[in-house]
Structures are given as C-alpha cells and as structure tokens.
Amino acid sequence: MFAINPFAELSAFIPPAVMQTYVVIMAVLVAVGTLFDIVHKGSARYFFDNWRKSKNQKGAQQVGGGELVSIAVKTGLVDVLASGEFCNARRRVAHLLTMYGFVLHVVSTVVMVFNLSMDSLWPHLWWIGGLMILVGGYWFWFFIRADVAAEGHSRFRVMHADLFILSLLASVTLGLIWAFLQTGTRPGAGLFFGLYVLATTVLFASVPWSKFAHMFFKPAAAFEKRVSYANGTRSNLPGPADKPEQFGSARTPPQHY
User: Fold this and answer.
1) 245 pLDDT tier (thresholds 50, 70, 90)
2) How many of the other CB atoms lie within 10 Å of CB of 134?
3) In this structure, is residue 231 part of a structural domain?
4) How many CB atoms lie under 10 A from the CB of residue 108?
5) C-alpha angle 211/217/220, rounded to 5°?
6) Which of 97, 129, 139, 206 could form a disulfide with 104 if both were Cys (CB 3.0 to 4.6 A apart)?
7) What is the percent of the chain where pLDDT is above 90?
8) Contact, 146 vs 256, CB < 8 A?
9) How many angstroms separate the CA atoms of 44 and 34, rounded?
C-alpha cells in the first residue's frame, strides 16, 4: 500500500493530463491568492514602510551588509526552519510536524502526478508527509489552540482563522483514506476521492481568506524584527511591561505560545 503511487492507479479512470492540469490550476490559485492577500491587506507595504522608518529613525544604528547576511541566515535557520517564534516546545513540535509534513506531502504529490511511475520512493514520502500533517494538525487542533488551552472554549469551536488548518486536515485525511481504499479496490474509494478533490480545492482556492499566505511573508516579518533589534529601534510596538513577557495568568501558566 505504502509503495504504490495512488495517482498511477487513478490514471486508468482519469487521464494524466487532467490531473496535471488540476495541479497547475491549484498552483496558480496559490500564487494569485497570495498576491491578492498581500495587496488587499497591505502586508508588503507595511513591512517596507516599517523598514524605511526604522532606518531613518533617530538614534538608529547602521547595520552593515555582512551583519544583514548574518541576520538573514539566522532568520532562515531559527525562525523559518526551526520555528523559533514558538517558545512552547509542544507548539513548536506540532508546527514543525505540520510544516515539514505539508512540504513533503505537496512535493511528493506533484512528483507522482507528473511521473506516474509505480516503483519509486515518492509514495512512501507521500504517506509519511500526510501522517506528519495529521499528527501535528490534530494535536494542535484538539490540545494546543490558544482559545482551547487558555480560554476554555470547546475544541470544536470553529472560527474564520481556522479555515486553513481545517481544510488542510480534511484534504490529507480524505486523501489517505482514498489511497487506502483504492489499493484494495474497496468500496467507497470514488466517494472519498471526490471529497478529497473538494477539500483540496477549498484549501488552495481559499488563500485570500485563510492563513495560507502567512507562510510566505512571515519570514520577511521575522527578518525585519531582527533588523530592528540590531539597529536599536526594536519595532513600532511598545516595550515589554514591568512584568516578564508571558501569557496566561498567575493561576494558569501559558501552554500555547
């Protein structure tokens, strides 16, 4: 089961060109949705304006080219690859599982759709990436979410901000179930494939209204923050309060940041 390319078996019913066209359309939707999100919310303009203000702010120190390269490398290694923004170990592990699982799952999906070979390592990576998403995503959804861990809301409370994680979990869950059912020609494979395509379309078509685009401009925000610390301007936010920077209360320690 784990060694079989599920899209290769699907090619007996759906032409490979149709599957490949669908993948291209999803990629275009992500690109267009991300650009729309950046323009509509003014994210890029905000970062560039903040960068310009920090450089021209009175008392700002000059940051040389070598230091900027060092900051960029540190941002990539710590803030992007290691999710250093999360202080809580559980939150960081859940995020890393979901992030790397998503990358592995998407890349292996594209490779398998455009190369329908049955004998390769990619089906194994597809399953591993999917399972990583499920572990990290469901762990976050049921046990780590801020409104659940700190505010006592129901684990099944759904908000607009949950569109990305819910559509991602739905897509991967339905996709793995479809692949499992299709392997043994079990009943229900067609139904779950249709639901899988629907959930995947919602995931990639809803970029302007979900947190999907965050993965593209969060590195820029992390880089700008480190530069503002390096030149002494911090950011346009006020300094920390008298107490240490923490979330939660005296009775309930923070568990979700």
Assistant:
1) very low
2) 18
3) no
4) 22
5) 150
6) 129
7) 39
8) yes
9) 11
Range of the domain at 22: 6-48+63-225
Helix (H, G, I), strand (E, B) or coil at 154: coil
Return the ∠ at Cα 213 (arms to 85 and 73), rounded to 5°: 45
Which of 163, 207, 162, 161 minimizes the C-alpha distance to 37? Answer: 207
What does the mean pLDDT of the chain come to?
A: 82
Q: pTM value?
A: 0.80
Query: Residue 212: how many CA atoms within 13 Å on its side-chain side?
Result: 28
Q: Which residue has the tokens 């240490």?
A: 244
Closest to 19 measured CA to CA, from 112, 131, 125: 112
Amino acid at 230: A
Q: How far apart are CA 227 and CA 20, in angstroms?
A: 42
Whether 131 is in a domain gets the answer yes
Quickly tell me which residue has 């490779």 as its tokens.
111
Task: Give the total residue count for the chain.
Answer: 257
Residue carrying the six token digits 């990290």: 136
Q: Which residues contact 140 (CB under 8 A, 6 or more apart)?
A: 91, 94, 95, 98, 165
CATH at residue 145:
1.20.950
Give the count of domains, the chain: 1
CB 231 within 8 A of CB 55: yes
Between helix 65-74 and helix 214-230 the angle, nearest 10°, is 130
Q: Is residue 20 part of a domain?
A: yes
Instruction: Write the pLDDT tens digit of every residue in 162-198.
Output: 899 999 999 999 999 999 998 877 889 999 999 999 9
Note the pLDDT of residue 35: 86
